[in-house]
């Protein structure tokens, strides 16, 4: 999938999962959904031309190179007898549930050690990464939510409380990236290291008729609009207000 699509799916997943981790109001939900959207781009650090790899210039470029080296070595060590003969860089190490869980755990550990500032840094990185592909409107919305929380006198407390969910948002974004890539023609080995049909890096994918090409018409003309609309309707209160508005114009049945 394209970076824009990954961020949208992360955003929608964040809005759906937010209530499950105790986040219900708009100022609470927005940072979670934004973090999930941003970290839904992170697995593509294993590609030198990806948004995540170019995001901080030489810094993320170096991290991208290190991840590709690690992925290449891990693939060589763990590939099964029927795994394809390839470099094992793109769509391998970073495109697994194991990587998502590890990154989520690391984010939680860092936030617990560093407190509010560490949480703020993790969320801000996700926000900036998501805004890089979704647009600057996300910065305005997030800044407004943060300002509202600060005005109520609880920004520091909100960041400290976020320690409990920041790892979930990071892991969720990475998992959504894997699921999105799994729906493409190339598939995604996100169940590594579980061996399937003689392959340790088995690319899971739906039936052929459900697969789509990255950047193709299905993604641009169908999936992006659908996830864009869903990303608005899933915001707290929007669906209820829409239903209430529609009922004003639809006469009750007799």
List segments where confidence is low: pLDDT < 50 over at least 5 consecutive residues.
none
Q: Can you count the helices?
A: 10
* Backbone CA Rg: 19 Å
Count the domains: 1
Tell me what you see in this structure.
This protein is mainly α and 254 residues long. The chain has one domain. 63% of the residues lie in helices and 0% in strands. The protein has ten helices and no strands. Helix 2 packs across helix 8 and helix 5 packs antiparallel against helix 7. The longest helix has 38 residues. It is globular and about 65 Å long.
Give a brief rundown of this model.
With 254 residues, the chain is mostly helical. It has 10 helices and no strands.
Secondary-structure topology with pairs:
Elements: H1 3-17, H2 26-39, H3 51-54, H4 58-78, H5 97-134, H6 137-151, H7 155-161, H8 166-182, H9 217-233, H10 238-249
Helix pairs in contact: 1-2, 1-8, 1-9, 2-5, 2-6, 2-8, 5-6, 5-7, 5-8
Keywords:
10 helices
């Amino acid at each position: 999938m394209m970076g824009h699509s990954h961020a949208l799916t992360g955003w929608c997943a964040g809005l759906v999962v937010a209530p499950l981790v105790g986040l219900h109001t708009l100022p609470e939900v927005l940072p979670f959904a934004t973090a999930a959207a941003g970290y839904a781009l992170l697995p593509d650090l294993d590609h030198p031309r990806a948004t995540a790899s170019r995001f901080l210039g030489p810094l993320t470029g170096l991290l991208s190179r290190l991840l590709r080296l690690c992925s290449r070595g891990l693939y060589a060590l763990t590939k099964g007898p029927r795994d394809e003969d390839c470099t094992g860089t793109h769509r391998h190490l970073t495109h697994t549930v194991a990587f998502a869980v590890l990154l989520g755990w690391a984010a939680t550990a860092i936030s617990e050690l560093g407190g509010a500032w560490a949480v703020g840094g993790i969320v801000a990185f996700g926000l900036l990464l998501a805004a890089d592909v979704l647009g600057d409107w996300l910065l305005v919305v997030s800044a407004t939510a943060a300002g509202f929380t600060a005005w109520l006198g609880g920004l520091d407390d909100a960041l400290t409380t976020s320690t409990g969910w920041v790892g979930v948002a990071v892991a969720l974004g990475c998992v959504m990236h894997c699921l999105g890539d799994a729906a493409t023609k190339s598939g995604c080995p996100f169940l590594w290291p579980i061996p399937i049909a003689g392959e340790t890096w088995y690319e899971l994918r739906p039936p052929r008729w459900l697969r789509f090409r990255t950047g193709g018409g299905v993604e641009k003309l169908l999936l992006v609009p659908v996830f864009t609309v869903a990303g608005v309707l899933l915001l707290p209160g929007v669906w209820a207000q829409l239903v209430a508005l529609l009922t004003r114009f639809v006469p009750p049945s007799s």
